Amino acid sequence: MKSITIKGSQRESVGKVSTKALRNAGKVPCVVYGGDKPLHFSADELAFSKLVYTPDAHTVVIDLEDGTKLNAIMQDIQFHPVTDSILHVDFYQLQDDKEVTMEIPVKVVGNSPGIMAGGVLRLVNRKLKVKSLPADLPDFIEANISELEMGNKLYVTQLAADNYKFMHPDNTVVCQVRVSRAAMKAAQDAAKAEKEAAKK
């Protein structure tokens, strides 16, 4: 999985006043959990753009001024309700021998006979939660739609999961091929024509 480096500096004081001062200076207060104790640091808001405003999944290298480097994944992010600026980010430190849970984007591959026949693809889940060791986290999950006829659904149980497991119920729908209005109208028109032909 691709990694993004975020440079920051450790925070000594974590009260409301210092947090507000950080935000006023264009910095985001952050916490890393998963180590011996929570680590508080701050980084420029611009440093998060490649991590937050992307459909891809990434691990993060947190590179602090004192020389500390940690591998982590983003666990939670809070945005300002009005301005959409980032208020706070929680990270979880990665350990090579400890499994982590992460949301991974779904990538649709293949040609569906149902779509070729006029159906419409609906991606129900754009991301899926998986659990694995950090080294086994995939960049994306392939959803092969080659077998989907019109009206068919692709379930999470039909996806390949080599070194990770899905954290979803077996009946979770990943995507489906729906009958389009045009295809439905064509079918209705054909049925109507057949009826009228039978009357004659």
CA-based gyration radius: 24 Å
CATH architecture descriptor name of the largest domain? Beta Barrel
**How far is the N terminus from the C terminus?**
66 Å
In quaternary terms, these chains amount to: single chain
Look at the structure and name the CATH superfamily of the largest domain.
Answer: Ribosomal Protein L25, Chain P
Question: Main beta sheet: strand number and arrangement?
Answer: 6 strands, mixed, barrel
Q: Assign the CATH topology of the largest domain.
A: Ribosomal Protein L25, Chain P
Determine and state the CATH class of the largest domain: Mainly Beta
Structural class: alpha+beta
Subunit structure: Part of the 50S ribosomal subunit; part of the 5S rRNA/L5/L18/L25 subcomplex. Contacts the 5S rRNA. Binds to the 5S rRNA independently of L5 and L18.
GO biological process, one term: translation
Domain Large ribosomal subunit protein bL25 L25: 6-91
Domain Large ribosomal subunit protein bL25 beta: 99-179
